[in-house]
């Protein structure tokens, strides 16, 4: 778990620095930073989505994930959790929940998260997660300068998700083939595109409710590898 702990520390430091400067920057500058983050998020999402080798796995994962996410209403759960934290720390930042959710998705959807967690979970040095930590530290500065302190609290779901992947890799690391990693990354990329579209105020996308698609991506990819589905 060393890699995840280092990741959490860098995100916290970056978020605190960015949040401090957000109070000093003019609103026009913050708006431009916000737009830059949205554009970068869309670019990163498309780059990740291009890793798919089976478009049907992607679309079926997103469809089933959307159904499950809407049924559970994950967005409402995350909003309630974000508002709970917001009340506890007594902040009036209107972008708190958005910063909390957007940062978590940006920090956790990439292939470095998956590969790094597998690397550490299988007993190797957490080189990838340490590298990711440095990148996330700078990213959290930019995010927090636009969205505020909510970015810092993304370390809670980051710890659960990334730490959980590390423990899964400890037991099931041999089942994480390159195909599984590629399809997970691709589906995560589509979710990031949705986040970018929301950040730019083009259209409100319930990206959080698409998160179960990641689980279906693993299931469908595994079934494809076992030749259960020829259509994929």
Helix content class? over 70%
Count of strand segments:
0
Radius of gyration: 17 Å
Poorly predicted parts: none
Shape call: globular
The overall average pLDDT, rounded, is 86
Helix-and-strand structural type = mainly alpha
| Head-to-tail CA distance between termini | 35 Å
User: Strand percentage, roughly?
Assistant: under 5%
Number of domains: 1
Question: How many strands, what sense, and barrel or not for the largest sheet?
Answer: none
Supply the number of helical segments.
10
Element-by-element helix/strand order: HHHHHHHHHH
Describe, in plain words, how this protein is organized in 3D.
With 232 residues, this protein is mostly helical. The protein has one domain. Helix content is 76%, strand content 0%. The protein contains ten helices and no strands. α1 runs parallel beside α7, α3 (55-72) packs antiparallel against α10 and α6 (111-121) runs antiparallel to α7 (127-147). The N and C termini lie far apart (35 Å). 46% of the residues are buried. The model has no long low-confidence stretch (mean pLDDT 86).
Which SSEs are present, and which pair or pack?
Elements: H1 2-22, H2 27-49, H3 55-72, H4 74-89, H5 96-108, H6 111-121, H7 127-147, H8 155-172, H9 178-199, H10 213-225
Helix pairs in contact: 1-7, 1-8, 2-7, 2-9, 3-10, 4-5, 5-7, 6-7, 6-8, 9-10
């Amino acid at each position: 778990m060393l890699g995840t702990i280092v990741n959490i520390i860098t995100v916290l430091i970056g978020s605190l620095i960015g949040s401090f400067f957000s109070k000093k920057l003019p609103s026009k500058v913050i708006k431009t930073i916000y737009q830059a983050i949205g554009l970068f998020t869309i670019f990163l999402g498309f780059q990740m989505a291009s890793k798919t080798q089976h478009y049907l796995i992607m679309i079926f994962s997103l469809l089933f994930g959307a159904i499950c996410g809407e049924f559970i209403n994950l967005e409402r759960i995350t909003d309630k959790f974000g508002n709970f934290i917001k009340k506890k720390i007594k902040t009036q930042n209107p972008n708190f929940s958005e910063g909390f959710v957007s940062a978590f998705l940006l920090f956790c959807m990439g292939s470095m998260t998956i590969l790094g967690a597998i690397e550490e979970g299988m007993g190797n040095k957490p080189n990838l997660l340490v590298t990711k930590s440095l990148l996330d530290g700078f990213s959290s500065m930019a995010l927090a300068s636009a969205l505020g302190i909510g970015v810092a609290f993304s370390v809670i779901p980051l710890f659960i998700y990334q730490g959980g992947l590390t423990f899964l890799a400890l037991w099931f690391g041999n089942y994480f083939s390159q195909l599984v990693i590629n399809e997970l990354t691709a589906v995560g990329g589509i979710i990031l595109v949705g986040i970018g579209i929301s950040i730019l105020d083009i259209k409100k996308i319930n990206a959080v409710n698409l998160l179960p698609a990641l689980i279906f991506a693993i299931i469908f990819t595994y079934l494809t590898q076992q030749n259960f589905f020829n259509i994929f």
